[in-house]
Amino acid sequence: MNTGDFYDFQGLLTGEEREIVARTRKFLENEVAPIANQAWADAEFPHEIVKGFAELDIAGLAYRGARSLLTGFLALEMNRVDPSLATFFGVHSGLAMGSINRCGSEEQKQRWLPAMSRMEKIGAFALTEPHGGSDVAGGLETTARRDGDQWVLNGAKRWIGNATFADLIVVWARDEADNKVKGFVVEKGTPGFTATKIEHKMALRTVQNADITLTDCRVPEANRLQNAHGFRDTADILRQTRGGVAWQAVGVMMGAYELALDYAKQRVQFGKPIAGFQLVQDLLVKILGNVTSSLAVVVRLSQLQDQGVYRDEHSSLAKALCTVRMREAVGWAREILGGNGIVLDYNVGRFVADAEAVYSYEGTREINSLVTGRAITGLSAFV
User: Fold this and answer.
1) pLDDT digit string (tens) for 70-85?
2) Cβ atoms 204, 215 nearer than 8 A
3) Domain extent for 317
């Protein structure tokens, strides 16, 4: 049992599910943890680690019949070790594979998903634009124009994780003919597609986020996601993955908590470990309270998803609530470490920085509050 899972929520998993989580945890602790800081400092993606991820056989588990509760705990485990590599995996397995699974034809699923499950093909998801973040639903500027059996894409995307090296990039564009948002799978090396790495990030530095430019980029009709008919379909994918970001937030604060707890037991001041001082214990308990209450929320969220009664407002409340608690928790963890909390060697500083990205993506706190507020009042406060 993880130190941070104080109420043993993982006990809700089956024996087989716990074995999958344990195998994943062992890989993360043995293979990912030792390289996480250096990859983060260098802002470079450790491509050699993909083979180990592939051998876990956990990519696309949600589309192979696994419970949301299992995929949630896997997300938690990844984020308690390295939120950057967890984000890489979430983009590939959640957003990219999720788009193809939700909006692709049977032929398209068979063409792409097996190789993506084996991580022989890595995916990316291109929705956000330089001028469109929270308002991307109505303000999508990237266009698609039908030309015979091809589509011509023009526009720009920003903050696209994995895009510098992905084999398959799901690009969302507005059809000039009917103004509907549609999805296209752009394959690596397609003329007119360029991805430029975003430099100087202060969070999730290992993730290779990119600015994408599409200039008369031609995609065959066979690569248009056949069941993506409008932004409602795009939103359906985001609803599923937004719950995953709430799980991410729990993993981030749990990782910071466990690091702070270990540090407090070892750091000696005034003749004894600082874990023996009242104010330090108070901080540890406050962090653990945030972790435990947030874990309760996401566990219930996954149960609702597994029961098929999961709604937009459920994931929005979870994402907003858990990321706010995460921000508090990692700050308290850094406080326990004092000056060492800002030194990368002690890990906690990386969690503090990475938390800022998790707090922002997949819908800001404000937008998710409006989604939840609309559900509870019946009145929309959107502009």
Assistant:
1) 999 999 999 999 999 9
2) no
3) 232-377
